[in-house]
Amino acid sequence: MRRLRLALPLAGVVVLAACTTSTTDFRDQTEDFLNEDGQVEDLVDGDVTEAECEEPLDTEVGSRYSCTAQVENAGTFTFEVEINAEDSFRIFDFSQG
After folding, report:
1. Left (φ > 0), alpha (ψ -120 to 50) or beta: where does 10 sit?
2. pTM score, two decimals?
3. Segments in the chain below pLDDT 70
4. DSSP string computed for the chain
5. Which long-range contacts does 10-14 make (Cβ < 8 Å, 24+ apart)?
6. CA separation, residue 95 to residues 29, 37, 61 (Å)
7. What are phi and psi of 42, to 5 degrees?
8. pLDDT tens-digit readout, 31-55
């Protein structure tokens, strides 16, 4: 499986490692990133758990999809995600509620 790269507004990158990146790869890697990356926790000021993402309709650059996750002591957050390269995505917006 490839490792996706991620660019947050003021944050780092995650990289995939394989030959192809499917819509399922993007969904799964985004969920993993939200659940496991400290940079996201810093942005929302709490532990992120139970991330669930829509599967993007395709893997074209510019395709967008949403994720929801629980943030400790803050409730549910929605994260807007965009595929910004063949093997990367970025969280371009997030909101509480």
Report:
1. alpha
2. 0.81
3. 1-20
4. ----EE--TT-------SS---HHHHHHHHHHHHHH-HHHHHHHTS-EEEEEEPPPS---TT-EEEEEEEETTTEEEEEEEEEEETTEEEEEEEEE-
5. 10/43, 11/39, 11/40, 11/42, 11/43, 12/37, 12/39, 13/88, 14/88
6. 20, 18, 23
7. -65, -40
8. 999 999 888 998 899 999 999 999 9
Whose structure tokens read 């400290």? 38
Q: And the tokens for 46? A: 């709490």
Write the Ramachandran bin of 75: left for phi over 0, alpha for psi from -120 to 50, otherwise beta.
Answer: left
What are the distances in angstroms from CA 58 to CA 49, 87, 95? 26, 12, 24
29: which 2 tokens?
A: 């890697």
